[in-house]
Amino acid sequence: MRYLSLCLGLHPHMLGAKSDPSRQRMPVSRRHLRVLFLSWRDHHHPEAGGAEKYLTEVAEGLAGRGHQVTIRTAAYPGGLPDEVVHGVAYSRRGGHYGVFPRALASQVAGRQRADVIVDVQNGMPFLSPLAGRTRVINLVHHVHKEQWPMVFGQRAAGVGWALESRVAPRVYAGSEYVAVSDSTRAELVSLGVDADRITVIHNGTDVVADPDARRSPTPLVTVLGRLVPHKRVELALDALAELGPQFPGLRLDVVGSGWWGPQLEEYAARLGVSGQVTFTGQVSEAEKHRLLAESWVLAFPSIKEGWGLVVVEAGVHGTPSVAFREAGGLRDSIRDGETGLLCDEGGAAFTAALRSVLADPALRDRLGEAAAAWVSRFRWSQTIDAWERLLVGPGAPD
């Protein structure tokens, strides 16, 4: 079962903001449902990321509209086994690996009854259709083909990829799917999932109290996310080492935490840029938005994302993003040449794109203004509306 740790975003040897108030808008009519979400972790987990933010917004939004919502997830140190937060019931059982079989066994035994089960498939599927006839929706942020071999050897990675690419599509053959981007939808179709069964429901954005915080007077690049290998923060450190002499005062903020953090700090030391980089660790929502507002550009060298929520969060502050063209949903959340820059694969191309944004104030301003306009169309209330239409049907908001 070691191969599970990759889809969980963890090292093989490890265990373990305020939401948009408009999401509480009540539809004219609807049928209240019992909705059970199965996810390996929740937003309160110390290793939570964008997928868990999406889950929380959807779950709390549905609960606020009168639905009975439960999230079944893995236990972790300090997490209560059962609690209710903002109207959502949390049931934490089984740990990082045991959550999958225990969730399935609980369904088979009928201990958690629901009208709809939403499996959150982060590489490893929960396989809920095997448990009975309850309606199942499979929520997929992105396909993990590129990520399996980044931690595991060829054999283990092959097993994991087989589960995701061959077993899951067969088990969910009669189920509906939700993808968070058109790119993810296309990937699922390539695995044999019927396109007509996939609904695309995008991420939203938070309403930020002070979106006009002051920009840093000196060049500042920000990386934000979990510190795990597939985020490839090393490429941002490489860019810092090369661009530092060209841009006096250039600094890099690495915002987030994860088991790969010590390796990144060692790498920064080897490059001789430790004095120019700040590893902030986890920060509050308010601090996150302050850092994004100060930044000149968001560097997002991840190998794969379903959407890239932080791109939209940066865009709220008029901060453009730089990422790779083939990194899945980032080509959907970033409009190349309009709200940010997408580059071809490779460190040289990534550094060149960052150089272009840092060196050209007019380009930076144009991209930032367009980014702010682009992301304004993504609101969590719209995400909740789309989910309720899918779950309930015509009685939900138009």
TrEMBL record:
Gene3D superfamilies: Glycogen Phosphorylase B. Residues 216-373 form the Glycosyl transferase family domain. Keywords: Glycosyltransferase, Transferase. InterPro entries: Glyco_trans_1, Glyco_trans_4-like_N. Pfam families: Glyco_transf_4, Glycos_transf_1. It comes from the Bacteria. Residues 49-207 form the Glycosyltransferase subfamily 4-like N-terminal domain. Belongs to the glycosyltransferase group 1 family. Glycosyltransferase 4 subfamily. This is Putative glycosyltransferase.
